[in-house]
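ligand=zinc ion
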Amino acid sequence: MNSERLIERFFSYVKTPSESGNEAAFCELLEAELLSLGLSVERDCVGELCGSNGWNIYARLDGTGDAMLFSAHTDTVSPGIGIQPVVEQGIIKSSGNTILGADDKAGVVAVTEALNSIIEKGKPHRTIEVLFSICEEPGLLGAKHADFSRIRSRQAVVLDNEVLGEIINRSPANMVLNFKIYGKAAHAGMAPQEGIHALKAAANAVANIPVGYVDEISVMNISNFCSPGKTNVIADKASFDMEIRSYEEDRLQQHMAACEQAVRHACESVGASYEMVTDRHSDVIYVPENAALITEIKAKLKQLGVEGKITKSFGGSDATYLFANGIEVVNLGIGMQSVHSSEEHISVSDLETTVRLVESLMESAN
Ligand SMILES: [Zn+2]
């Protein structure tokens, strides 16, 4: 790894704006770098599906031993235009009111700098595959639509989490529910007894559904409660949305059934009816603690003086879609901090260690 080049490269990345949906310029820059390093590079056409002018980048460098996929996302949240990065006392941050964009350009640069380093030193390496995805922030859209037939690796690391040393091996199933409650309109002053109050039924249901950490492995939320109408009319419609995340599918199903039961009871007590629509956002990801991939990452972290810590996260990442496509994957902490805010920063030393980790994973598997 070349520290000076790493910082220069990282700065050029964060100065190239790539807010979600506008990644094209950054994609162009990365493709040119990967091609100049000698990788084979392909792009797909999922930009339109994702509402983006960019594309996912797939790159490969053939080597010996099992292939490994290195993945990071090219988009950032807002405000991500006009980023002026500075280094102060070993910490890289933005000098203005923007984000820094270490999420996830620290992950991206770890891959390109590690590749550059391995290639210039002529080091032996495994087959290295790269997936740089677009539109991760608005809902993992690039990864969701990615063409996994272009990827041979059965193992992958996603470089998109905060604390260096953390190895996320578990992510929850995530289900979004929409409830619509139907009552009957009537004049609120002249004939309220003829109405069926959908808003009251919905409110009763919501009052009986717990939110937050509902057990040790599950979390729920309720949002978007609405019942538009006038004060002189009994509300005949109400709706609300919910999200349930659980590290176990069975538990998710139990919570979902309990939520539906709360709505059914609330409706039955006043004669209202309801409709429930479900939308699955992700399945459970679980890579066992003793999997070869995790053992290898822990050993390589140890060589760098970092203790690997296996952990789980209720948050989403592109790992969801890699796992769904049969790839054993963990999401690694890379040192970025306070992401999605103007306080976002990363230490030079964490960035360097992340590059060294990626470099050592790219070298031959044994
Ligand atoms: Zn990210």
